[in-house]
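Please check this chain.
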Amino acid sequence: MNKKIIDKKVRPFLFLYFFILLFFSSSSVQAQCGIANTAFQSGEFLSYDLYFNWQFVWMKVGTASMSTVKSRYQGQDAYRSSLITRGNSKLDNVFIMRDTLLTYSTLDLAPLYHRKGAEEGDRYYVDELWYTYPNGQCHLRQHELTSKGKHNWKNTDPGHCVYDMMSIYLRARNFDAASMKKGQKIVLPIANGHKLQDTWLIYQGKEVIEMKNKSTKYRCLVMSFYEREDGESKEIIRFFVTDDANHIPVRLDMFLKFGSAKAYLTGMKGIRSPLTSKVK
């Protein structure tokens, strides 16, 4: 048979093979950057009260709400997760806080898109991230709208999986605590609109936590979120998550530049599994 005829017959199969190879290579990287989700389901909604330590007194200064629903992102099934924090008039007198975070991720929680719009103090800024996985590598498209109205764009190829604050939260809820040891460090590099940071979680063990109402207690797993700034390691947030299949954050301790803050869970609906961590 003529070689040119063979080439014409084989060429479509070569293109198909090449396409499948690229598809599964990209999917493999997404799988590596993701994790099996056993903690939450579409329709979960969590609400919190925020407290700030002001001259040794804990004052309620605002609220936060967190939701996750199944959605679509660029033609594929995805989770859409959002976090909204709003300070009240008491906090506004000290520090204005209006933050909205939005993240899309695959159903196995590999990040796809992230946006943070924040009014903090006297400045407003926006961070955006687009995640893609071409040729088996994680690629980031980063966008920053500064408080001065300047748009900064950059492309980054980190060579490893990278996350944002929301996708780290989703991922951490699915860690298998039974296989973790106290003091274990989990490296999770984080990105925002203009840079990459060295960040990690440290498992602090288990603890029984009393809620703000004094009448509810939960058995919790304790995780600390650290970042490195100016060569120093700093604990930014300490998470107390229920020691059951849901891994719901019931309290967050935040160590801010201008003081200490706490968030207490006040309501939940649409949770995936029985809340067996509640102490009776």
Residues 105 and 111 are 4 Å apart (CA to CA). The longest helix spans residues 3-33. The chain has three helices and 17 strands.
